[in-house]
Structures
1.
Amino acid sequence: MNWNKATQQQKLKYQQASKIWLSKRPLFEELTSCDNPMCKNQQHIDMLEKFYNNIVEALKQAASEVLTNNPKQKHNVPGWNKDVKKKHKAAQRACL
């Protein structure tokens, strides 16, 4: 989503949806108790990666809800922009 073009209402909806989706993701208590900033514990590394992925997925879900309510936009593809769209169309034409 282009946040520069988002309405204030869309931003508020995203904020609310983010809170809901993030609250459904587990917080790994062991991560908050580790005080080693250079921790090499593989279990902690795995938990941190899973926690990161959970956050990203929650924010994607929240954005999807906001975009679903936007009749002008059918779906959101992260990283998609006008330049990518032009290249995609050119690639489609080349394959035909």
2.
Amino acid sequence: MGLGARLTRWPLEFIEILTSRGYRVIRYDNRDVGLSQKFDSAGPADVVKMMIEMMQGKKPSVAYTLEDMANDAAGSSRTVFEIKTLSCSRRNVAARAA
């Protein structure tokens, strides 16, 4: 849903509509939001310092980056795909054995 929105912001009624139509719904909190891991000890990001580091071609010295968050989303999708694929493979093996 975007920056700062928790997974619980998605109305259950909407999720039920999607799942009843055959869609699979993945809800998760981005880092440092809602039910996910907190990075309070890192303190607020120094945006000016971060931009200078980025202009110098350095990785910003922050607790996590947008790339890290994109990798989280991609990892979640891969995991669901792998589970679905594994489930289909098991069904195919069971069908062949019958």
